[in-house]
Specification:
Layout: E1 2-9, E2 24-32, H1 38-48, H2 52-55, E3 59-63, E4 72-77, E5 80-86, H3 89-96, E6 120-124, E7 147-151, E8 156-159, E9 164-166, E10 178-182, E11 185-188
Antiparallel strand pairs: 1-2, 2-3, 3-11, 4-5, 5-6, 7-8, 8-9, 10-11
Bound molecules: FE2/S2 (inorganic) cluster (FES).
């Protein structure tokens, strides 16, 4: 098992902290190789000298408990940024009050989150146009016209469900495979 430290960023659109909330906090994540129980079998793994194809199978566990409502955090999974948004009720309502059929890539908000965990949006933070990392995670970053994320490379606007609303991106931001291990822990991958 390899411990990593993930960088988190703070969304200023969430009110109520009087400006005292931390802009940057850190959360521990744990990356697991496909073999599992890495501590016990490390000598074997070391001997096998796992290559990138093994590492590519790794999953990442994220403790959600330090992430406050309204906060957006970025973790890394398989070398990619993964956006985690602890959505406010307003953001959820915004995402669910959309005429889905009119969307460029029609998908309901419910299809993009886990049932019973609607406050948590988990997406790969890579624009589906040409691969830039959209803005919207950090303090003061532009979030586009739909309150979600904005890709400054060619002007793609994503909404509070990470769906493409305007601009050249052909698809919504991708949702990686993940599951809730308990109410405050997810495993990505
Ligand atoms: S890469 Fe995001 S709009 Fe082109």
């Amino acid at each position: 098992m390899t411990d990593t430290t993930a960088h988190q960023t703070h969304d200023p659109s969430s009110e109520g902290d009087g400006g005292t909330r931390r802009d940057f906090i850190y959360v521990a994540t744990a990356a697991f190789g496909a073999v599992g129980a890495a501590g016990a079998v490390w000598p074997l793994i070391n001997q096998m000298n796992p290559d990138k194809s093994v590492l590519a199978l790794a999953s990442t566990d994220v403790d959600l408990s330090p992430i406050e409502e309204g906060q957006r955090v970025t973790v890394t999974w398989r070398g990619k940024p993964v956006f985690i948004d602890h959505r406010t009720p307003e953001r959820i309502e915004q995402a669910r009050s959309v005429a889905v059929a009119d969307l460029p890539d029609p998908q309901t908000d419910a299809e993009r989150v886990k049932e019973g965990h609607e406050a948590w949006l988990v997406m790969i933070g890579i624009c589906t146009h040409l691969g830039c990392v959209p803005n919207g995670q950090g303090s003061g970053e532009a979030k586009g016209e739909y309150g979600g994320w904005f890709c400054p490379c060619h002007g793609s606007h994503y909404d509070t469900s990470g769906r493409i609303r305007r601009g050249p991106a052909p698809r919504n931001l991708d949702v990686p495979p993940y599951e809730f291990l308990d109410d405050t822990t997810i495993r990505i991958g």
